[in-house]
Write a structure and sequence with these properties.
The chain is mainly β and 106 residues long. 0% of the residues lie in helices and 62% in strands. A hairpin with a 5-residue loop joins strand 6 and strand 7 (71-76).
Length: 106
């Protein structure tokens, strides 16, 4: 449902359906290099932030490696629909990188 560039790689985010929902979401993240090959990036973090007047909400899931190098999994539960700022970061053999982008939670 979303793709972003990060440190010369393409990160693809997958979930059931075409968007994140306010209730629990299994989120899969994969990183691919310029040749389209899966790329192991080391430790990965994913955070959602929603700023509202007088309040800030966070949804942070522990990102785990899968059995396939370059593919990761987490669960996020935003709790509210809206436009959330997503931050994706990694640190490992491919360096340290971070990118932020907007995601619409339904």
């Amino acid at each position: 449902f979303a793709s972003v560039k990060i440190n010369g790689l393409e990160a693809h985010l997958f979930t059931q359906g075409d968007a994140l929902r306010a209730a629990g979401n299994d989120l899969f993240i994969e990183f691919r290099d310029a040749q389209g090959e899966l790329a192991d990036v080391g430790d990965v973090a994913f955070e959602l932030v929603l700023k509202m007047p007088g309040a800030v909400m966070h949804s942070i899931g522990k990102v785990m490696r899968t059995a396939t190098p370059g593919q990761y999994r987490t669960t996020v539960e935003p709790g509210l629909a809206g436009e959330w700022k997503a931050t994706l970061r990694f640190s490992g053999a491919r360096g340290n990188a971070e990118t932020s982008f907007l995601l619409n939670v339904k």
